Amino acid sequence: MSHFIAPSILAADFTNLQHDLDMINSSDADFLHVDVMDGVFVPAISFGQSIVRQMKAACSKPLDVHLMIIDPDRYIKEFAEAGASIITVHYEACTHLHRTIQLIKSYGCKAGVALNPHTSGKLLDPILEDLDLVCVMSVNPGFGGQKFIYSALEKISYLRSQIRTKNLATLIEVDGGVGLQNAEKVLQAGADVLVAGSAVFKSERPIDTIRSLKEIGNHTLNV
Ligand code: DX5
Ligand code: ZN
Fold this sequence. Notes:
Elements: E1 4-7, H1 17-25, E2 32-37, H2 49-58, E3 63-68, H3 76-82, E4 84-90, H4 97-106, E5 110-115, E6 133-137, H5 152-165, E7 171-175, H6 183-189, E8 193-196, H7 198-201, H8 206-215
Parallel strand pairs: 1-8, 2-3, 3-4, 4-5, 5-6, 6-7, 7-8
Helix pairs in contact: 2-3
The structure holds D-xylitol-5-phosphate and zinc ion.
The site of zinc ion has 6 residues, from strand 2.
C-alpha cells in the first residue's frame, strides 16, 4: 500500500477557496484535511460545519475532519451530515473516548483519535482496535506553519509496532510541520497519511508538491 496525502485547507487562501479546492481536485491528494478549532481546546477559531458543508460541495476528495474542540460529541452528527468521511477527535478533549468513537461510526464515518505531542501513544493501547485512524500531532495543535517536533517519530514507531502486532488496519496520520524535508523520515517511522498545510499551499507549485510528497518511497508498511 502506498501512503496517502492530505493537504490541510487551513493554509489555503480563504478569499478564493474555490481556486484552492479546484487545485486539490485536480491533484494527487487522497483526502482534504479540514481543521476545525473552537478557540477553547486550541487558541484559534477556524470555521464550523456550514463551511465544511460548502467545502464538501466543492471538493471531490473525501473530507478528513480534524476536530480540535472540547466535548466533540455535541457536534459529531453535524459534521457527519456536513459530509465528513473521517472524523478525528482529540484524546485530550474526550471524557468517554470509546463512546465518542462509537458515535462517529454510528453515522457511517471512519473514526480517528489525535494525540497532542505530550500525550503517550501507549494511552491508546486499550482502544487501538476500535480506531480507523490515529493522528500523531507533530506540532502543538492550533496553528499552521509550525516546526515539526521530532519526538513524534518515536510515537509513530510505537504505534506502528502495536498495529502490526495486533494485525490491525488502523492508519497512522501525521499532522504538523510535514513537508518534503522530513516526509521520508516520517514514512520510514511508519506513517500512512501525511497532512501538509504550508508545505503545499505556500509552495510555488502546490500540485507538484503534492505529487512529490506522494512519490516519496520507502514506505515501510508492507516490508
Ligand atoms: C494544526 C493543524 C494542522 C495544520 C498543519 O493545529 O491540525 O492540520 O493545518 O499545517 P502545517 O502543515 O502548516 O503545519
Ligand atoms: Zn489538523
